[in-house]
Design brief:
Blueprint lengths: L12 H5 L4 H5 L8 E2 L2 E2 L1 E2 L10 H14 L9 H21 L7 E4 L2 H15 L6 E5 L8 H10 L2 E5 L9 H7 L4 E7 L11 H10 L4 E4 L11 H4 L3 E5 L10 E5 L3 H4 L10 E4 L4 E3 L13 H17 L1 H20 L4 E4 L8 E6 L4 H10 L2 E2 L1 E3 L4 H7 L4 E5 L6 H17 L2
Parallel strand pairs: 3-15, 5-6, 5-7, 7-8, 8-9
Antiparallel strand pairs: 1-2, 4-10, 9-10, 11-12, 13-14, 14-17, 16-17
Length: 423
């Protein structure tokens, strides 16, 4: 994941503004045009969920008003149109992450379900007593708990690669932890609690040299930089629509090679079958083998519109603009007495976590909210990360391409106000 190509490397927000009109972009997001507690909304909780542009809202509304029907099963015109709309998004996702085939794209409810699907399949096929699953100390609970569950069920062990004080992986130690008993490495592409961008290409390379497949949790990565799953070499890549300006309840599992043929179904029911009798069920071919029941059809249509919207802006622009926002916010908060940044990796994306001496992060979030500033306060579903840094929680500001320099000013003023209140 690179910040921006060499051909386009602006040094300041002012320079970039000549190419990127953030005020025009903000007009596409109606929710941003409101006041909270009498103050203009400053939305800095994008790592939890991004807001939705009109293109997504309109796509869902139009589909529901004109084309909605259940998919795959109907011969009538509405069902045919709905099926075409739904399946066309599978192709958009394939192109978006540069997968080789549409059949490698499984629609799920989100990153969490995608990881659980793989954990279930790995547990049923290649994981046995004494085997090991390797994760890292910076994982979201969604990439910890499913592996704990399957390891307990199969008598396997969960191993954890450490991180340093900056919130970066100890690569030498991680490589040592990949042994002849390792059956899978599962790690986050970008940390939701720290913002760390992991060197996943290097990790995948030395895991593959030892014959170990790799799953990447891409929930926090896909909104900030172009992801190419074939260039990465990932065996599995999972991400969610709602962190990519799309609807909730939709996500993607990508699997390379013949993994989807090898893994058993995660759920049973309609549409994941080829035929059913009381004696035997024959499963459908991938990806449909993993898509039991009626999916979130409208959400998938909205997800397709979100992908189109982001690609129209372009990731070179998005990466450059968000990096400059993050750098400026980081330097400004470092100047505030009593503020400690949690996660100072050399390569970061989108996330600024911090604590204030003598102030609980929930109080930080509450006071900022009174000024219309929405941040996240808590453990961010990453309690082991909090334990690693000796804090119960952090305040987390997370950025998107619709955020502005003026909003950074408001955030910094708000943090100074917190300091004054608790002085």
């Amino acid at each position: 994941m690179r910040v921006v190509s060499d051909a386009y490397s602006p040094d300041t927000l002012q320079e970039l503004r000549g190419r990127f009109d953030v005020d025009k972009i903000r007009e596409d997001f109606p929710i941003l045009d409101q006041q909270i507690h009498g103050k203009r909304l400053v939305y800095l909780d994008n790592a939890a969920s991004t807001q939705k542009p009109r293109a997504v809202i309109d796509a869902e509304t139009l589909f529901m008003a004109r084309d909605y029907a259940n998919i795959h099963r109907g011969v009538h015109e509405l069902s045919q149109r709905a099926t075409e709309a739904y399946e066309s998004v599978r192709g958009r996702v394939r192109r978006f992450i540069n997968a080789e085939h549409d059949r490698q794209i499984v629609f799920v409810r989100g990153t969490t379900e995608g990881i659980n699907l793989v954990a279930h399949g790995i547990g049923k096929t290649i994981l046995g007593p004494g085997d090991e699953i390797l994760i890292t100390h910076m994982e979201h609970h969604s990439n910890i708990v499913p592996w704990q569950m399957v390891c307990e069920e199969r008598g396997a062990k969960l191993r954890v690669a450490p991180i340093n004080e900056a919130g970066e992986l100890d690569l030498a130690e991680l490589e040592k932890l990949i042994t002849e008993r390792t059956r899978l490495v599962a790690l986050v592409h970008v940390s939701n609690a720290l913002g760390t961008i992991n060197p996943v290409e290097e990790i995948i390379r030395f895991a593959h040299e030892k014959g170990v497949p790799v799953l990447l949790d891409g929930a926090q990565a896909v909104a900030h930089a172009k992801v190419d799953v074939r260039a990465l070499g990932a065996d599995f890549y999972v991400f969610s629509s709602h962190k990519l300006y799309g609807p909730t309840g939709v996500g993607v599992l990508y699997a390379s090679g013949d993994w989807l043929d090898r893994l058993p179904p995660y759920q049973g029911g309609g549409d994941m079958i080829s035929s059913v009798s009381f004696e035997k069920t024959i499963y459908n071919k991938p990806p449909f083998k993993f898509e039991a029941g009626t999916p979130n059809i409208t959400g998938v249509v909205g997800f397709g519109a979100a992908i189109d919207y982001v690609e129209d802006i372009g990731f070179r622009t998005i990466e450059a603009y968000e990096r400059l926002l993050l750098n400026e916010a980081t330097e400004r908060l470092r100047e505030v007495d009593g503020v400690r940044l949690i996660g100072t990796a050399r390569e970061k994306a989108g996330v600024l976590s911090f604590v204030i001496d003598g102030v609980h992060p929930h109080d930080v979030g509450t006071i900022l909210d009174q000024d219309g500033i929405a941040i996240r306060a808590g453990h961010h579903c990453a309690q082991p990360v909090m334990e690693r840094f000796g804090v119960p929680a952090t305040a987390r500001a997370s950025f998107a391409f619709y955020n502005t320099r003026e909003e950074i000013d408001k955030l910094v003023r708000g943090v100074r106000k917190v300091r004054e209140v608790f002085a």
